[in-house]
Amino acid sequence: MVTDGTTSEEPHFDMRTQYLALLACSLTSLGDAVEIYLPSVITQPLSCELGITSHREVILGVSLYISSGLLTVLLFPVANRLGRRRVLLAASYLAIAAAIVTAIVPSYSSLLASRVLLGVTIAMNLTVRGVYMAEVAATKEFYTIAITLIGALFSFGGGWCGLLGYLLLDRLGWRFFVILTSAPIFILPLVLFQFYLPESLPPRREHGNDESMMLVREDRSEASCTVSKTPDITPELGPIIKKIVKVALCTVTWLPYYGAILLIPAIAKAHNISIGSDEP
Hints:
Elements: E1 2-3, E2 12-13, H1 15-41, H2 43-49, H3 54-74, H4 76-82, H5 84-104, H6 108-136, H7 140-172, H8 174-182, H9 187-196, E3 216-217, E4 227-228, H10 239-251, H11 255-270
Antiparallel strand pairs: 1-2, 3-4
Helix pairs in contact: 1-6, 1-7, 1-9, 3-6, 3-11, 5-6, 5-8, 5-9, 6-7, 7-8
């Protein structure tokens, strides 16, 4: 847990807390990828049971893409006031709820609503996950390894979902498959954020300079930590605008990747282009 030998506002985190935070954030990254890729795995049963056409598939992808992209920028000031751990905890609850809703939806409109809800959870994770790790990490080396692992598990998530679909989809049915594939991944992060992980920094209750975008602990052996900040690239803007600009700069490189994952398979199917299939 947190070891604090002084009255400094900046907490100091032991190695156990850092590794638990890494485990929780890595699993949420894996779960996000699984949730994003899931409709591509269950395309056939969705078309048969709910009448999901290729054009509706595109709309499903766009709804998740837009909701997650917009909220990623807008949620950062909220996380500053509520606390990063609370936002990540709420995202885990919502991700499990989105998986359950997806599995029980009776119609296309209900499925569309569940994808928008999933977009909210992805935005919450994407906004806070990296910042939380930066604030918990005691050294730059640990933070670098953590971010690398989190990114690798996101890339691995799509392949993991596809492999499980190949092995289990026909045996379980798509509804049970959705719950079994996505919801359990978020259970351990939920437990860790709920009971074992502390808040990385005290929630910000007033407007002021943003000191928490890329905080890195320089020395975990000292009770009071040295914190380094990224340079302020927008000194002339107000505090809220600066936060939005910084988060937008950090997340913009992810947006094309999300778009490719969400839209390319559906667009290809809409134009009768085969991807990875033996069918003519």
